[in-house]
Amino acid sequence: MTDQRQTSSPTKITAPARPPIVKVMMMQKDEGPRLARWLTHYACLFGMENLLIFDNGSEEVTTLALLDEAERCGAHVRRDLDTAFDFQNKGGHFTNVIRSLNQDAEYDFALPVDCDELLCVFTETGLSLGKADILAEFARLKPWGCPFRIELSLFNLPGDGHEGWYAPNRHFHKGFVPAYHDATIDNGHHAPALANTTDVKMTRFVYLHSHNRPYQEMIDLSRAKLMPEMESPDDVFDRQKILAHLSRPHCPGSHLCHMLLRSHDEYETLYRDEVHIYFREGLPLIRSRSGRLHVWNSHAYLARHPDVAGYESGPLAHYLMYGFPEGRSLH
Is residue 168 domain-resident? Predict the structure, then answer.
């Protein structure tokens, strides 16, 4: 009797692609609540074991407790770089760490960030802080062997009553690099470079940047950071000395000088003429100059502006970067 059973070749089982491994490096001092927010966000995204924290001489109790807990949970905490010089040259420290990682670590990207920056990604419908969406963007970028650019940052609005509201800073670019390349990180992480290419790949990432603090806290912090750059520590209290420093070509700490020259009212109305975006989770809210509120609708924006369909970072990124300055309607 002939065996009628069908035979087939064995099914090839392929292992699922592993998620991208991202090494996150950050230097901070006494950031307390911001450090707590930073730790919980990046540990959730990439795992505590992939966080490299450079402490710049913290003394504040909550910060020290957070560093101890992060270390206990697997983060790498380095405490020997505790001078103002180290902070001013953190890009060099990050560059050295990347060279070390390239020797013996399994990873895909090195991401230098500040303690007040939360990584977020533009999606087809808006924004996401979600792990799946952020890892999907890293997976999309894996084939490229060049530096990556984060074109836009969303800065929190200063002043009371603005929790959750941001405004775009279109000139505040950031970047990161792929693994196993000869990389150089600049001190602000604005333009990381690779030795073997001048190419740069745009990404869909954006930072929620909680840069702005209460006015007097910003003044005190700016003075402390600017002091090492001035001839005398007392110069940070002298408006004319600050203006003289600012007039120097490529002067270090220029953003600190600008902060020290602002009045309280100027500071709190810094983004008065900008579009404002409210985002925590879910759909963003958009507030125009007139104060009118709109729930963001990608489909309506694309229907009104079909030329935006090919914009790689998505419709919301286009509106914030180009659409609002061009006067484009939301729908």
Answer: no
Inter-CA distances, 145 with 42, 109, 181, 195, Å: 23, 10, 8, 11
Q: What is the DSSP letter of 211?
A: -
What is the Cα–Cα distance from 110 to 255, expressed in whole angstroms? 26
Structurally, the chain folds into a number of domains equal to 2
pLDDT in tens, the chain (331 residues): 444 434 444 455 555 688 999 999 999 999 999 999 999 999 999 999 999 999 999 999 999 999 999 999 999 999 999 998 999 899 999 999 999 999 999 999 999 999 999 999 999 999 999 999 999 999 999 999 999 999 999 999 998 889 999 999 999 999 999 999 999 999 999 999 999 999 999 999 999 999 999 999 999 999 998 998 888 999 999 999 999 999 988 888 888 999 999 999 999 999 999 999 999 888 899 998 888 999 999 999 999 999 999 899 999 999 999 999 999 999 8
Domain containing 104: what range? 22-115
End-of-domain residue from the set 82, 115, 148: 115
Which CATH number is 66's domain given? Answer: 3.40.50
**Boundary of a domain, candidates 250, 268, 286:** 268
Separation of alpha carbons 275 and 48, rounded Å: 35
Report yes or no on 256 lying in a domain: yes
Q: pTM for this one?
A: 0.90
